[in-house]
Amino acid sequence: MTQPDYLTVIRERGIGALDRKMGIEITEASPARLVGTMPVEGNTQPMGILHGGASVVLAESLGSIGTQLHAGPDRRIVGVDINATHHKSASTGIVTGVATAISLGKTMCSYEIVISNEAGERTCTARITCLILAQR
After folding, report:
1. Which architecture characterizes domain 6-132 according to CATH?
2. Helix (H, G, I), strand (E, B) or coil at 130
3. Which residue, 51, 60, 119, 129, is most buried by CB atoms nearer than 10 A?
4. What is the rounded radius of gyration, in angstroms, for the C-alpha atoms of the chain?
5. Measuring CA to CA, which residue among 62, 75, 82 is closest to residue 133?
6. Per-residue pLDDT of the chain (136 residues; tens, 9 = 90+)
7. Strands (E), 47-107
């Protein structure tokens, strides 16, 4: 059996309204690894730097999409835990998040997400755990 083209699956299914508002674009996708970008502009706090919550939105989007790809189209998923450590600010350009699966289970998935600025410097490290709900 061949692997599905996960980027096509995401494009066909669409992304969430918040992802669109934030300018998030998924550039690589599989259950094991996802990559997405987000502009700093429009996602800043009053001091003109990337809002920490925006980084968490990018991280949660990547981990949730990865879990959904792992679970399949007939299963629903929900995030149950997320945490983030902010290391460095970003004030221009884009940030890139790389989500790497820590565990892909039958009922739970966890990802580590590393977010970096255009210089390749780590700005945030996050971890998310998502629950795969039982089929109904």
Report:
1. Roll (3.10)
2. strand
3. 60
4. 15
5. 75
6. 456 789 888 887 778 899 999 999 999 999 999 999 999 999 999 999 999 999 999 999 999 999 999 999 889 999 999 999 999 999 999 999 999 999 999 999 999 999 999 999 999 999 999 999 987 6
7. 77-86, 94-104
Return the half-sphere exposure (C-beta side, CA atoms, 13 A cut-off) of residue 74: 3
How are the residues of the chain apportioned to helix, strand and coil, as percentages rounded to the nearest 5? 25, 40, 35
Q: Which residue carries 């884009």 as its tokens? A: 94
Report d(CA 105, CA 126) in Å as an integer: 19
Closest alpha carbon to 104 in 72, 82, 126, 59: 72
User: What pTM does this model have?
Assistant: 0.94
Residue owning tokens 């299914």 = 13
